[in-house]
Automatic annotation (TrEMBL):
UniProt GO cellular component terms: bacterial-type flagellum basal body
Protein name (Swiss-Prot/TrEMBL): Flagellar hook-basal body protein
Keywords: Bacterial flagellum, Cell projection, Cilium, Flagellum
Domain Flagellar basal body rod protein N-terminal, residue spans: 5-35
Ranges of residues in domain Flagellar basal-body/hook protein C-terminal: 223-267
Domain of life: Bacteria
GO terms (BP aspect): bacterial-type flagellum-dependent swarming motility
Organism: Ureibacillus thermophilus
Length: 272
């Protein structure tokens, strides 16, 4: 009986975690560059149940043999194995702010992605698809958290004012003179990146990703006065959220049924 409680409880835990992830996705449906989290639910290994019984063998010595009768498989529950971002391109929309930039994917192999390069305060680089940049008090191009946007050479980008132009190839022009190139990093396997708060990604060892400009066959474009929207499908997320909630309720009712059965066994059968 208790095996069933553990199985139902594992289902509740998995669905609760899935609900939290879907809720976070929906909360970021309007966050520029946000990549929706995807979940993978798997089952624990099944147990093979068997019944062991004695049988008498009609011999002079009266031997007893143990017979094993297979009953069937028993599921031991499910668990949320992993979460991974969906790196599909979000919709591109116009903002009319010169400090807003959007990366438009071109020819990219499956599982790969490109990112803006940022200087992380703890050292090394961080990566993002959120191009909602601005200029700080010293004229440096920064993101919403104040992380410096890096150029192709790994330097900060300082501009005199917001009157600048960014070409499709990432080149930054002031008064028709190129002053920098927006740094773009390339992740051959984007699923190996570690997702952090505010839409940031970092490598597992803290190292820097290679430049996307130096990759043969990789194409992309950069659009100024545009942002990449979140790739969260609000309608699909709502449907999945309701499904997860119903599954949580179903497992909850199973545990309540077991609880009533045990209560009856203790209070009524136990008195006999």
């Amino acid at each position: 009986m208790f095996k069933g409680i553990y199985t139902a409880a594992s289902g509740m835990l998995a669905q609760q975690r899935k609900t939290e992830i879907l809720t976070n996705n929906m909360a970021n449906a309007n966050t520029p560059g946000y990549k929706a989290e995807q979940t993978t639910i798997r089952s624990f290994p099944e147990m093979l149940l068997s019944a062991i019984d004695d049988t008498n063998v009609p011999t002079k010595k009266g031997l007893n043999l143990n017979l094993i009768q297979p009953i069937g498989n028993l599921s031991t529950g499910i668990y949320l194995q992993e979460t991974m971002p969906n790196f599909a391109q979000g919709d591109i929309y116009e903002t009319e702010y010169t400090t807003n930039l959007a990366l438009v994917n071109g020819n990219l192999p499956a599982g790969s992605s490109i990112f803006f390069r940022l200087a992380h305060p703890d050292g090394g680089e961080a990566y993002t698809r959120n191009g909602n940049f601005t200029l700080d008090g010293q004229g440096y191009l920064v993101n919403a958290d104040g992380y410096y946007v890096l150029s192709e050479t790994g330097n900060r980008i300082q501009l005199p004012n917001e009157d600048f132009q960014v070409a499709d190839n990432g080149a930054v022009y002031v008064n028709n003179q190129q002053v920098a190139t927006i740094g773009v990093a390339y992740a051959q396997n984007a699923y190996q990146l570690i997702k952090q708060d505010n839409g940031l990604f970092r490598t597992q060892d803290g190292g820097a990703l290679p430049s996307a400009y130096a990759q043969n066959g990789i194409t992309f474009a950069m659009k100024q006065k545009y942002l990449e929207g979140s790739n969260v499908d609000a309608a699909q997320s709502m449907t999945q959220l309701l499904t997860a909630y119903r599954a949580f309720e179903a497992n909850q009712k199973v545990i309540q049924a077991y609880d009533k059965s045990m209560e009856k066994a203790v209070n009524e059968i136990g008195k006999v």
